[in-house]
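Troubleshooting log. The previous structure file for this entry was overwritten by mistake, so regenerating from the original sequence record. Sequence copied from the archived sheet and checked twice against the printout by T.R.
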Amino acid sequence: MNFLISNPEIVRNARIQLRRGRVVVAAVICAAISVITWEGVAQGVVGESELFGLVLYFQVAVLLIGGGVYCLQSIHREKELNTFDYQRVTRLTSLEVAIGKLFGSPITAYLVVLFLMPIALVGALLGRVPISVVLEAYTILFLGCVAYHAFALVISMMLGRGGSAAAIFIFLLLVAITSVDWSQITGTFVVHRLSPFCAPQIPSEYVYAIGVAASDAKYSGWYDLFFGKPLSHPFVVIVVYVVFGAWFLVAVARNLKRDPAAYELYSPNQALAFAISVSLLVLGFFQWKVLGPADWVFEGLYARGPLPPLDVIRELLRVNVPVFFALGVVLLRNRERVRSGIRTTAKHAADGFAAIWPTPYVLVGTAAVGAAVVGLVEHYRPPESHWNWALAAFEVLFFSIWLTRDILYLQWMNLRRSKRPLLSGLLCLLAYYVCAYVFFSGIGMFEVPDGGPLTAVFVPSPLFSSGISGWNSQRGLWIAALALQTVQGLLLVLLHRRRLEGMERATAL
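Regenerated output below.
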């Protein structure tokens, strides 16, 4: 605790934000909210058992969203005011500066949460909520907000000038996606909401558990399923917050004192490990086992029928597309990093390994996750279901080659002489896929029985809709489509190498 109190960045933010006028205004607003909420209890609008959860919602909203906006502005605003370079040359380590911004930037939001604590504790007493449940709820609130604030710092660090609206949109999008209770709306993933907005549900889940346990001793709490095994949801979210909060803090700490042109969120091995850890969560929370009447104890889980094994593989590959696409984007090298590599390792600046960068990591990651998916499907699939090992392996390989081709294109585009080459590459890639889908839909190629392999050369979707009979009758055409995808990737490798050689010659002059 002392290292937080003595952190100069936290002290600086406290002096700026916690001025007497601001503190008084925050206290008056929180007092007014507390009085109005208490009046609602007195009038019977809010039940005594609901008061604690309602105040928790206020606290989560203030700390998560309000504190997140402060963190989004912390580094980005320093760059716009041209004061960021002064922090880079301080005697503080990158980790100390990162922790200072993580806890100092949202300090006003922490103060508001503190001012709302009295009415929250009164609600806990009126609702007879045990102290263990109160501590559990606030542990999730605090750890969850810290993890999301660390992600906000990553966004703030990576954004250029004028990107505040985009930063807020990305952050709110993450909050919205993780606030969805997937176990209630889909039978694909058996996991409750992962955002800190799950904290206010803990008191109501405790009350519900008591009511159910009084009639049936089998009920044992609020569960998620991880590889078919029940795990307490509070335990799940705490582990997720600690793991991913640490990942985001590492990204900030390793780059904060670097020149922005030389930012590298993670080392290649770290980036690969991060992508695999995200995929592990995706695979783990997938509903591998079909819930039956004996599984009623997992309250709120939406049971679905078993999917065909090939459909499971395709669904999980689709979900992992953004994970490994992001891995490839994180590993891309810009012109400044390539020039730096040419100066330090001139002999290897344009060799074969440099020309295929960053495909080795993308291929290893997609192959590892694809093999895990196939192995899990083989383990969990019903014995009577239709299965084809060759088609499953081919889909994983096609998925890896296709994703690698697009990453190679972005790497080649990222070395162009333009203001924002990566953004230009992403827009061109998006325009390409939109035009390809519109064209093939317009001429009806997606409905033609023999059109799948041809269209798969340009867009991968036909492969993930073909059946075993189509694969058996068109195996040669599908292999030819994979070969053409590989040829496209090799052409991009040659273009990338030529650009590297041109930069090598220009740097040598």
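The longest helix spans residues 475-508. Archived copy saved in two places this time.
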